[in-house]
Amino acid sequence: MKFHWMDRGRLNNPQEIKNLANILDKYKYYSLLLTYHSKQDDLLIKSLLAADNNIKLKFMIAIRTYSISPEYMNMIYQSYNEMFPNKLMLNILSGDLHKNEDSLENIPMFNDFFSSIENRYIYTEKWLEKFLKICNNKYLPEIVLSGHSEQSKNMSNKFNITNLSMFNVYKYYIREKNKIINSKQMVAISAIIRNTKQEAFEFIENNNTTKEYYKSCIFGTKDDVKNGLLKLFSKGATDILIAPVINDNEYVEVHKIVKEILDDNSNNWPSRIR
């Protein structure tokens, strides 16, 4: 049973990352996911400046496979691991693009190949195969592969790594007998806690920036959210990734629920090691 926290690109410098990491560690989160956007500064380097061997929290860094070679990613990981053992996780992305990005145009020579999502899946599988082979004689990182496609889920099983699905998609998968449910399954959700379920629902309805989260959101009282999170674990999730809701100033209540769950289930916590 592991909880992870996702930052949606709001952190601008290593000190901000470090401050958040210290807070999350107190609430017993397993890792902090730092996202990828080609128009923003590199957060892998900034996480290195924020890393701390005195806390247990890890940094999960999003990497697009077409943006870096397996060889160079291994060089970075081994160097990072030498200074901060077991502090770096990788969130592997086949390469979904934001609307304002021109990443594929910036790839010399091979941009036509990567313009196809099917080809990016093929490349990601080859990338993972090579990366794990190169790492084999040294340190292997924990890897989370994002994706709802059958290719992504099959890749996760093939390489024995964690698959990441959005909450609304995962709910659909567990209802369909023919869909793959990975043995290592991370589910991404948002959570909103208020005094009543109606109050939480009204917050979603009245705040345009939160409507996109509705289908992948657990909301209501503390007990509603706690029971929703525990139900996810009972339905096969091994990890839960929580993304903060924009303009929600009461998200610290979510942290409290996470710690409460982990304290209540301390026998399931030995996997949270440095």
The succession of helices and strands, N to C, reads: EHEHEHEHHEHEHEHEHEH
Strand order of the largest sheet: 1-2-3-4-5-6-7-9
The biggest beta sheet reads: 8 strands, parallel, barrel
Low-confidence segments, given as residue ranges, are: 269-274
Molecular shape: globular
The secondary structure category is: alpha/beta
Q: Helix segment count?
A: 10
Rg over CA atoms, rounded to whole Å, is 19 Å
In terms of DSSP E residues, the strand content is: 15-25%
Summed over residues and divided by their number, the pLDDT gives a mean of: 87
Helical content (DSSP H or I, runs of 4+): 40-55%
> Between the first and last Cα atoms, what is the distance in angstroms?
16 Å
Number of strands: 9
